[in-house]
Amino acid sequence: MKCPFCSSENTRVIDSRPADDNNSIRRRRLCDDCDKRFTTYEKVETIPLIIIKKDNCREQYDRSKIEAGVLRACHKRPVSAEDITNLVDEVETEIFNREEKEIPSTIIGEILMDKIKNLDPVAYVRFASVYREFKDVNTFMNELKKMLDR
Question: Helix 105-119 to helix 63-73 angle, to the nearest 10 degrees?
Fold first, then answer.
């Protein structure tokens, strides 16, 4: 493992323990060259998941895209980074539990919308406005009304 500070490959593990989700291992490492410590996480490699986009093109699943969308929706909202990570973990678990090799992006979007709705109402409206591609104010207001009626 390369040191992120000095790029030396002379590093060693000084502590290992299960991470919070019990699906990965957290390792504390020490660089023998610069004496700095850093943390790495080891996860089980899952079957490659292919996402079918709206235009029918396919691409490999990328967790960072989900995280980026949730982060944008939660920008300047009272939502902790831990809450966002937990939400993305839940979505990812739900996606992989389907045990499908290909999954439409629309299903991922709907799962995300359900989870964000419980996290923060403003973040939900922000995410919905991009995901549902509101074309005018009326469609935006219809979505708000649905949310307020619940």
Answer: 40
